[in-house]
Automatic annotation (TrEMBL):
InterPro entries: Peptidase_C69. GO terms for molecular function: cysteine-type exopeptidase activity; dipeptidase activity. It holds the Pfam family Peptidase_C69. It comes from Menidia menidia. Gene3D superfamilies: Penicillin V Acylase, Chain A. This is (Atlantic silverside) hypothetical protein. The lineage of its organism: Eukaryota, Metazoa, Chordata, Craniata, Vertebrata. Belongs to the peptidase C69 family. Secernin subfamily.
């Protein structure tokens, strides 16, 4: 498998418009994989309780924060998501000099969810993820298949005031703080000489492997990657194209601008083919802690043929049934050993309807254009309503407990007219 999946973006003032942090990610996964959007409320646990992640069991935290996640339906973790403290995390597959481990451990997607459940700031999420990484390691198949598709992980993490880029190679890692402007990551190491936190043995390990002479300035991307930083910046690379799109909107990056970036097919950001964009997320986080964040998810493939629907953390928020895939419990082929002996139907209700609409858009140009225009109009109206909440706050939280599901129903109403 060649590195060919995912892009994550963040824009902070002054690159974003107004006093907002804008986070965005396309999850690019195998084209037959279902991505669901799920919500889990905060919860307390007893001392000594265990947590079953995708492959391994670890110690449960005393308290977990409420989270909303977009994840491949077969696993425990998530490709991207946010928590009640407005921390957002997305991860990327990265490959480098160190061989990615096929032995089952924590997936990078497990670490995304664990970071969200246990951290109330972006920097704390870096600490949570790296502590778990050093204790339990990362590894195991990253696809619902026994093909042995494995990778290391990088993470882009944001909160109300800053962002962090965290890159890993096995148990070793480096992290860089981003305090303003914009940043994007794809599938190559991107931390160079600005390293604000690191594994204490990371440099010595590289020196021992002969990757670094111990004398020249330490550059994480150059040392740990297959590729030099010059190759990372090569024209035509998705990371470079994504940076150009951010630069084009610099100073005016909004939710709508981020959605446009995620829909861009010429750049390769909106991926098609055997690996395609199976889910997308855009979050708008006000700097003012008195104001709520708004988190938009598609829950369906190809953002060009999807609607971004909002979720806001409020007390008693409803579970997201329309975008939750069927559960197979202990009989799930992922849980049974040997794993991945079959693939059950994991399509959730919204996916089923969207799949039919996508086929119609593809086969009937005029009708497809009409459908797409209706979807965009619905999305535009919703985004405008959310702008009021982002600037004025929430008058009655009870009116928002069903916000995401109501938005799904509005989307389905368009499909049902076809």
């Amino acid at each position: 498998m060649q590195p060919s999946s995912c892009d994550t973006f963040v824009a902070l003032p002054p690159s974003s418009e107004g006093a907002f942090v804008i986070f965005g990610k396309n999850s690019d996964r195998p084209c037959d994989e279902i991505q669901e959007v799920v919500y889990f409320p905060d919860r307390d646990y007893n001392a000594g309780e265990k947590l079953e992640c995708t492959y391994i069991e670890i110690e449960q935290a005393a308290h977990t924060y409420a989270v909303v996640l977009s994840r491949p339906a077969w696993l425990w973790g998530a490709e991207m998501g946010a928590n009640e403290h407005q921390v957002c995390i997305g991860n990327e597959a990265v490959w480098g000099r160190e061989k990615a481990d096929s032995e089952e451990a924590l997936l990078g997607m497990d670490l995304v969810r664990l970071g969200l459940e246990r951290a109330d700031t972006a920097e704390k999420a870096v600490d949570v993820i790296t502590e778990l990484l050093e204790k339990h390691g990362q590894g195991g198949s990253c696809m619902e298949d026994d093909c042995g598709f494995t990778y290391h992980n990088s993470f882009l993490i944001s909160d109300r005031k800053e962002a962090w880029l965290l890159e890993t190679s096995g148990k070793y890692w480096a992290a860089e703080r981003v305090e303003g402007g914009y940043r994007n990551i794809s599938n190559q190491y991107a931390i160079t000489t600005k390293i604000d936190k690191e594994h204490p043995g990371m440099r010595e390990y590289a020196r021992g492997k002969g990757w670094w002479d111990g004398q020249t300035e330490f550059n994480f991307a150059t040392v740990y990657s297959f590729l030099t930083t010059a190759r990372i910046e090569a024209a035509g690379d998705r990371c470079c194209e994504g940076r150009k799109l951010l630069e084009k909107n610099d100073g005016h990056i909004t939710a709508e601008a981020m959605m446009d970036i995620l829909r861009d097919k010429d750049s390769g950001i909106n991926m098609e083919g055997m690996f395609m964009t199976t889910g997308s997320m855009v979050s708008v986080i006000p700097a003012d802690p008195a104001l709520p964040g708004v988190h938009y998810f598609t829950a369906t493939p190809d953002p060009e043929r999807s609607v971004f629907k909002p979720f806001i953390f409020v007390k008693n928020a409803h579970l997201l049934k329309e975008t939750t895939s069927p559960s197979f419990g202990p009989e799930d082929p992922v849980k049974m050993k040997p794993r991945f002996q079959r693939k059950p139907d994991r399509k959730h209700p919204l996916f089923v309807k969207n799949e039919l609409v996508a086929a119609m858009i593809e086969s009937c140009k005029d009708k497809g254009l009409e459908i797409t225009e209706s979807m965009r109009e619905l999305e535009k109206e919703t985004v405008e309503k959310m702008k009021e909440i982002l600037t004025q706050g929430i008058d009655d939280p009870d009116l928002l407990v069903n916000l995401f599901s109501s938005s799904v129903q509005n989307e389905l109403s368009i499909y049902n007219k076809i």
